[in-house]
Amino acid sequence: MEERPYRSASGAPIALRCRQHSASCRELVVRCPRLQLRSLSAVTSAVWLAAYALFVLSENSMVLSAAIFITLIGLIIYLHFVKIDQESLLVISSLGIQVTSSYASGKESTTFIEMGQVKDVVINEAIHMQKVVYYLCILLQDPGDPQGVSEVVPLFQSSKPRLDCLIEVYKSCQEILEQRKTALQSS
């Protein structure tokens, strides 16, 4: 298990951990930076100072209570539904691909794609705000047309790794997919 430092598309530090469980099973985990206590304290202080200023002007204690309540609810929503600590990709050649997102609150969201549905894993590019952004995606095979693609499933949407990190993940996925193709051809 090795962990290498990379950067996200926005320049934030991320880390890629590759773990090979067997020749046909590989887990790739992209870890995002953790929530910084300094930034959390700064935002909370700014909201509470603004609420205190409103309290002084209006002399209504409900302003302070509302600010505390809104800050706490906002923090819970942010940690449970927005802030993702890590995204993982588990590729098993005989079964499929499992995509997991782990939130800061501990909640996990998992999607499983059967290997029979996977046509390919590719690096795609998009133009966003006058910038070219690369992303890894799974192409799902169209059941009606063996040469067609029915759906594109983007990966690592929260961490948004740069191209050098995506190439490492892409190579690992392609090794497993090639093993599957050779095993299917030999049988």
Automatic annotation (TrEMBL):
Reply yes or no: does the keyword S-adenosyl-L-methionine apply. Answer: no
What Pfam families does the database record attribute to this sequence? PIG-H
- Outline the extent of the Phosphatidylinositol N-acetylglucosaminyltransferase subunit H conserved domain: 88-157
One Gene Ontology CC term in the entry: glycosylphosphatidylinositol-N-acetylglucosaminyltransferase (GPI-GnT) complex
Q: Which InterPro entries match?
A: PIG-H (IPR044215), PIGH-H_dom (IPR019328)
Task: Please provide the record's keywords in A-Z order.
Answer: Glycosyltransferase, Membrane, Transferase, Transmembrane, Transmembrane helix
Keyword Transferase listed: yes
Membrane spanning stretches: 40-57, 63-82
What pathway does this protein act in?
A: Glycolipid biosynthesis; glycosylphosphatidylinositol-anchor biosynthesis
Q: What GO molecular-function term can you cite, just one? A: glycosyltransferase activity
Q: Name one GO biological process term.
A: GPI anchor biosynthetic process
Similarity-based family: Belongs to the PIGH family.
What is the name of the protein in this document? Phosphatidylinositol N-acetylglucosaminyltransferase subunit H
This protein's species is Eudyptes chrysocome
Lineage, please? Eukaryota, Metazoa, Chordata, Craniata, Vertebrata
Q: Which gene encodes it?
A: PIGH
